[in-house]
Amino acid sequence: MRIALAAWAAAAALVITAAAPAAQSNMAKPERYTAFAVDISNTAPRATTTTVDITINRWSTDTERDQLLSVLHNKGQDALLSALQKLPVVGGVRTPGSLNYDLHFARQRTEAEGGRMLFLMTDRYITSWEAMNRPRTIDYPFTLIQLQLDREGKGVGKASIATKITEAVDGTIELENFSNQPVVLNDVHPVK
After folding, report:
1. How many domains in the chain?
2. Is residue 59 a part of any domain in this protein?
């Protein structure tokens, strides 16, 4: 099922391409967030809820961002996946009972009234069955997370677990989500 995530894609493109350099400065200490995830997509057998813990150890550099954009523009999604996997780990995502999934890209943008938008991206975990049998889901190799935070670091977000990334003619980044909607992240807040 092809679902265009136009508003989310526009926000992601803005964070990837236009985040202010000052907003990407080195971090004094890692940022940690927890959220309550609600998945009501068509890929889950039933609605599921869980907590999600996100750690950001450093922000991706302008050079890393520019490299990914260039690879996407010149070589497409498969090359983008390979380039993303080669970037250093910038953080991780974990749910109860799961391993930590490495994040390879993290950018932020300052928003009105002191808030921030965080955009996180990594390669999606592919099971051995999926790699061998190559169902349609194999064409959706990215996981993207967007967090909209207020000045206290509280807010909401979205997570697209299985996503294609393409580039539209006008240079904007377009996302195609395998499920009918992203996972909603409620009650996002910092962990001390």
Report:
1. 1
2. no
Helix (H, G, I), strand (E, B) or coil at 80: helix
Inter-residue contact 144 to 175 (CB < 8 Å): yes
In this structure, is residue 63 part of a structural domain?
no
- From CA 2, how far away is CA 97, in angstroms rounded? 31
The pLDDT tens digits of the residues spanning 12-58 come to 544 454 444 445 666 779 999 999 998 876 565 666 888 999 999 99
What is the value of pTM for the model shown? Answer: 0.81
Domain that holds residue 183: 3-20+32-41+72-190
Mark residue 98 as left, alpha or beta (left: phi above 0; alpha: psi -120 to 50; beta: remaining): beta
Residues 6+ apart with CB under 8 A from 138: 126, 130, 131
Write out the two tokens for 48: 């599921």
Contact 175, 5 (CB under 8 A): yes
| Residue 49: inside a domain | no
Residue 54 within any structural domain of the chain: no
